[in-house]
Design goal:
homodimer; two-stranded antiparallel sheet; 2 domains; Rna Polymerase Sigma Factor, Chain: A; Rossmann fold; 8-stranded mixed β-sheet
Amino acid sequence: MKEINSIGIVKSKIFKCTDPIKLSCGMTLDNFELIYETYGKLNKNKDNAVLVCHALTGNQHVAGRHKKTDKHPGWWDSLVGPSKPLNTNKFFVIGINNLGGNEGSTGPKSINPKTKKVWGSSFPIITVEDWVKTQKTLINYLGIQKLSSVIGGSLGGMQALEWNLQFPNEVKNTIIIAAAPNLTAQNIAFNEVARQSIITDPDFQKGNFYTKKNKPKRGLRVARMLGHITYLSNDAMKSKFGRKKQNKDYQYNFNTEFEIESYLNYQGDKFAKEFDANTYIRMTKALDYYDPTKQNKKKLSGVFKKIKSKFLVISFTSDWRFSPSRSKEIVKSLLDNNINVSYAEISAESGHDAFLMSDDHYHEILNSFFKNIFKSK
Amino acid sequence: MKEINSIGIVKSKIFKCTDPIKLSCGMTLDNFELIYETYGKLNKNKDNAVLVCHALTGNQHVAGRHKKTDKHPGWWDSLVGPSKPLNTNKFFVIGINNLGGNEGSTGPKSINPKTKKVWGSSFPIITVEDWVKTQKTLINYLGIQKLSSVIGGSLGGMQALEWNLQFPNEVKNTIIIAAAPNLTAQNIAFNEVARQSIITDPDFQKGNFYTKKNKPKRGLRVARMLGHITYLSNDAMKSKFGRKKQNKDYQYNFNTEFEIESYLNYQGDKFAKEFDANTYIRMTKALDYYDPTKQNKKKLSGVFKKIKSKFLVISFTSDWRFSPSRSKEIVKSLLDNNINVSYAEISAESGHDAFLMSDDHYHEILNSFFKNIFKSK
């Protein structure tokens, strides 16, 4: 089904924003570029737009392929396409690479127009609030007054939530998957270990490595390996790898001995070649900082008072990075405000990564939610 | 109570073994030294000896202080001392630094007598089986034929179990705490990330850094920070740190922003100054390799057939590194063989680290088990 209903060949576009934007950190960016993709057609009433917010290392390439020969389609291709749950025959779907991102939006490896030099370490830390603000400029540019839906998993779910706090009148439906209202101490701890691995890599050069011979690959590699452990459940690792070895007998050296080691090393190597270290550490900071309760100064239920959209919240039983109990915090605070919310806790073995997979139950729920949105337009 | 019943000032001793020992990896060590400590007195019948096996980064200094001014006592001082659960008025307690260890036993930073140079990277990978074999040489040297008990937590628990497989007639009681019969894929994954962090540190120099200016502190630091996350439960981190910040407002930089970050960085720095990187990676390998089922070639119940000692197995509810279900695998296989086993799953918030703490319920169980051993002698 997946390939039959593929959106086909797609192309990224550039949106150049020349309006200055004030960031959470206090700095003002005079202008910036955002890379985005769209699938399907915006209808006459411009009321069928769905914004897809990406997670930690995601990007604008949500569905389809850039070239016929691309090995993999966009990261949420299982969900987005003709006759797929997020049906591009009905909806106008927007994928975006967030400010500071890795895929071409203005970020640490861009040129700072003021200095004519690469931003590098001087590129600011961007927050979820900043992303939503910049996403809104793109939505305005596309002539959309109100989003039919905003959807995101993990860090993307935080952006979907934030849309409701910053622009409650500009979003009609919100889908939050495998997310949390803020990070736990354990979540922050994993992020900090990843950051320290990168920052203390001698090749990181305090973030100004773009003109140097080496990139801080080894720090980024370890950070990604660690990340992967938290994306998978204990049970998924057990079924997939268990104690399977590479060789019949133990080698008694420090080469990879077990298949799980080989998998992690492969993932780490691949990522370290492709991803920008400055972007990675900033993305983890955006996660750490997000907190609609403003460090418990406000109650989540109180913050949610202004929300007007309809919600679907989805969690996965084996997700220990953003466990179902964190999704329930969101659901509870929505219910406290009599907001229309559906909630599903999907039985899935794959852990946090489940939000990227095409579990039947999960996709049926999304399918039915989007069908209903389309019908009730 | 703790300081009143302290064992007081203690001194480490050296045992020089001149009998060659064949290691699991195939190499033969012609001679080696083990650092150990003893507390209490060996009785006339020499049947009151308790061997304490240490975990990943532990050592021979189990209880008391080396100097009056020592900031901290030995690592299991809460458990071992006069009138403590492992009562040194009754038992002769032996602490040992394992072969390859950090505290003076023959290891990577020792001189290889054959080459007259530091072992460094050429020091072999030592297994749990090797440790038990070398521990037995010390026990023989002390004139003990049969241990009253062998006790250990985590990796120490694996050694306690292995004593029963290698020397079933030489151990009367076994106490296994917060352990597992072998590592899961997730356990191995965390170890591999720690190893990669160390091995890819440019200062590691393939393990031959002893004569160089710098030690591989940054890799070891990240490895320890990661380890700490797995020693604590999610709930313990939440109670202790939550989202508490270092400053009133966000700083929007890469300095430590949250208290949990500051804690981890402190722990990482401290450890990287004190511990040997070559020892650390070898200790994690010993964990990975241990598997009495020989990669499922044998059933645990089958392997346990030869066991003769009485068991106490203890797990902690919030331990996600070695969860109660792993302890239950041991208990079940003991029960399959009609072995006398007591099992307690202690309600504790602190996670894997709970085995080092002095929870009342936990210590009462140990106290009663040891009292009973003493009575039935």
